[in-house]
Amino acid sequence: MIVKQCLIFLLYSLCANVFKVAGMKSKAKGSQGQFPITQNVTVVEGGTANMTCRVDYNDNTSLQWSNPAQQTLFFGDKKALRDHRIELVRASWQELTIRISDVSLSDEGQYTCSLFTMPVKTTKAYLTVLGIPGRPEITGFTKPAMEEDVITLTCTTSGSKPAANIRWFRNDKEVQGTKELNATGKSFTVRSSLQFEVDKRDDGVAYTCSVEHESLSKPYMTTEVLEVHYAPHLEITHSLIIPQEGQYFKLECVSIGNPPPEPVLWSKDGGELPDIERMIVEGRELTITTLNKTDNGTYRCEASNHLGTSSAEYILYVYDPNALGHHGPDHALIGGVVAVVVFITLCLIIVFGRYLARHKGTYLTHEAKGAEDAPDADTAIINAEGNHVHAEEKKEYFI
Ligand SMILES: *[C@@H]1O[C@H](CO)[C@@H](O)[C@H](O)[C@H]1NC(C)=O
Ligand SMILES: *[C@@H]1O[C@H](CO)[C@@H](O)[C@H](O)[C@H]1NC(C)=O
Ligand SMILES: *[C@@H]1O[C@H](CO)[C@@H](O)[C@H](O)[C@H]1NC(C)=O
Ligand SMILES: *[C@@H]1O[C@H](CO)[C@@H](O)[C@H](O)[C@H]1NC(C)=O
Ligand SMILES: *[C@@H]1O[C@H](CO)[C@@H](O)[C@H](O)[C@H]1NC(C)=O
Ligand SMILES: *[C@@H]1O[C@H](CO)[C@@H](O)[C@H](O)[C@H]1NC(C)=O
Predict the structure, then answer these.
(1) Which of 11, 18, 170, 393 has its CA 20 to 30 A from that of 29?
(2) pLDDT-based confidence at 333, cuts 50/70/90?
(3) Which ligand ends up closest to the CA of 57?
(4) Within 10 Å of residue 396's Cβ, how many Cβ atoms?
(5) Cα–Cα distance for residue pair 226/210, rounded to 1 Å
(6) Smallest CA separation from ligand 2 atom 10, residue
(7) Number of domains comprising the chain
(8) Last residue within a domain, chosen from 78, 103, 130
C-alpha cells in the first residue's frame, strides 16, 4: 500500500515538473525570451576558430555575425564579406556558426552576433589569438671564453602573445636572469640576460634558455655549452711518504688547464735534471728507479698554454734506511697508530666505567638492593643507603 502511494506521489511530482518546464518553454517562445548566446573563443595563430551563435527559441528571425570592424560576415547563410578564410559551418533559425581559418593576430577582437528582432538584440564573443613564440636564440657567447671575463648571455624570442616567459638553467639548475619586453605590433619580443664572471668551473657547463607559453605543449629550449680557457694549475704528487735510499720513486705533475698544458718540463735545483739512467721522464711523470741520497733537492715541474705558465715544486729528502733503524718508518707509524688506538680505548673504558658506576648507584638507591639480603626493612634501607654511599665513593674514585 505505502509503496503504491509513494509511486503515485513520485509520478505526480515528476509530471508536475515536466509541465513546469513545458510552461517555461512556452513562455520563452515569446520575443522577450528570444536572445542570441555566444561564447568567447581562444585560438592559436594559424589555427581555426568556430564562432557559434545560438538562439534556442526563434520565430524565424534572421541572425548575423559581424567582425570587430563592424563589417557583416554572414547574414543567415549569405556571405557578406569577401574573405576566403571565413566559411559557413551551419545556418538555421537556431544557430549560425562560421569558421575562420588561418587566424592571424589581427583577427583578434570582439565579434557580434545580432538577432533582428524589434529592437535588434546583440551579443559579443571575444576572439583571443595566441601568438606562438619563436625558437629562442642565445647570443653573447664568446667561444672560448677566458677565465675572469665578464660575459652576458642573452636569450631572445619574438612573436609571442601574450608575452612568453623565459627561464635560464645552468646545467639543469635554474638561475635568475633579467627580463625585458618590447611590443612589436600585436606580439612581443622577450629578452632575458644573464651576466656573470667566467670561472674555470664554467668550462663545459650547459646554459639553457627555456621559453614557456600557453600556445606550446612543451617549452622551447636552446642550449649552449660554455668553453672556458684558463692558465694551467699544477700540483706534484709523489709515490712514497718517506723516500729511502734504494727505493723506486715516482713524481707526477698533475696539471689542469684549457687548452691542456703540454709538455711538462722537469728541473732540479733550478737546473736541468742530472743525466743519469736512474731518472726517467715520461710526459708528466718523473721516475727514479733507485733512490740515492745524491737525489736530494728541489724538483720543479712547469707547464704552459697560451694563457700562461705555471709551476709546482717538491723537495725530495732521501732517508738513509740504516739511520732510521731496523724498525723502519712504517713500523714507527704503525706503532704510533696502535698507541693512539690503545689510548682512545682506555679513555672509553674509563668514561664507560664512570657512566656504569653512576647508574648502578642510582639503581641501588631506588631498588634497595640491600633489601634482598637484609632481615628487615630498616636494615634494608640502611643497606641501600650504604650502597648508595659506596656508589658515590666509586664515582669520586673515577673522577
Ligand atoms: C569547428 O566546427 C567543425 C564543424 O562542426 C568541426 O569539425 C571542428 O572540429 C570545429 N573546430 C573547432 C576548433 O572547434
Ligand atoms: C518559419 O519558417 C518555416 C519555413 O522555413 C515556416 O514553415 C514556419 O511557419 C515559420 N514560422 C514562423 C513562426 O514564422
Ligand atoms: C569574453 O571576453 C571578454 C573580453 O576578454 C570578457 O570581458 C568577458 O567577460 C568574456 N566572457 C566570458 C563569458 O568569458
Ligand atoms: C626594445 O626597444 C628598445 C628601444 O627601441 C631597444 O633599445 C631594446 O633593445 C628593445 N628590446 C627588445 C627586447 O627588443
Ligand atoms: C749513490 O750514488 C753514489 C755516487 O753516485 C754511489 O757511490 C752509491 O753507491 C749510491 N748509493 C746507492 C745506495 O745506490
Ligand atoms: C741528502 O740527505 C741525506 C740524509 O739522507 C743527508 O745526509 C745529506 O746531507 C743530503 N744531501 C744533500 C746534498 O742535501
Answers:
(1) 11
(2) low
(3) 2
(4) 9
(5) 17
(6) 60
(7) 3
(8) 130
